[in-house]
Amino acid sequence: xxxxxxxxxxxxxxxxxxxxxxxxxxxxxxxxxxxxxxxxxxxxxxxxxxxxxxxxxxxxxxxxxxxxxxxxxxxxxxxxxxxxxxxxxxxxxxxxxxxxxxxxxxxxxxxxxxxxxxxxxxxxxxxxxxxxxxxxxxxxxxxxxxxxxxxxxxxxxxxxxxxxxxxxxxxxxxxxxxxxxxxxxxxxxxxxxxxxxxxxxxxxxxxxxxxxxxxxxxxxxxxxxxxxxxxxxxxxxxxxxxxxxxxxxx
Length: 250
Prior knowledge:
By secondary structure, the protein is an alpha+beta fold. The chain is about 30% helix and about 30% strand. The protein has helices at about 5-15, 25-40, 90-100, 105-110, 115-130, 175-190, 205-215, 230; strands at about 1-5, 15-20, 45-50, 60-70, 80-85, 135-145, 145-155, 160-165, 195-200, 215-230, 235, 240. The strands form 2 sheets. The chain has a 10-stranded mixed sheet with strand order 1-2-3-10-4-9-8-7-6-5, with helices on both faces. A hairpin with a 2-residue loop joins strand 6 and strand 7. The two termini are about 15 Å apart.
């Protein structure tokens, strides 16, 4: 089991946050045993596991992060997709599309974060993308002179990673997201990139279907838990709870 303090997240959200990598049932048991000590150090643990952890009940938010991957091949450019030049400010349309992309985000679904944390995070994400700090390229689908679809891309040597991808609500179901994916696949091909990857939530069925329809294959799945340490601890007087002896990972 590996516990790593996340300084950026801690500073951004104003909390004490760490990431915990759980690799085995034994790691899960060790984590539960250490919680009485960890609650003095951290407010929140992001627990990453390849398997479900049964000791976490329904009050512990669980997000199954799925990575989709495909080999890059020619797909053709779409005339309605435009690449943005580097920007120093974000328009209201771009900001709205960025916020739409996080509909299933664990940061949006977890109401225990400080108010408007999700909006603050995704605003920062699109700001850093258009400035070129965390994305190499930003593409928009333009309809009637307005952006109605957004895709951010970060080319990392032989792999291009899709970050934000969204379509304005009123334009969904019209093939805009598929047009963006096709355009970016051609763009990556012309850049001699070998693969294209994207992360989404297993619960986001429409997104999973979109990627599979566009030739992506599921590469991996990881369960991510938000353990608010003090809330998870169960006190009986001064006695902390005892972890169950039955297997807690299946």
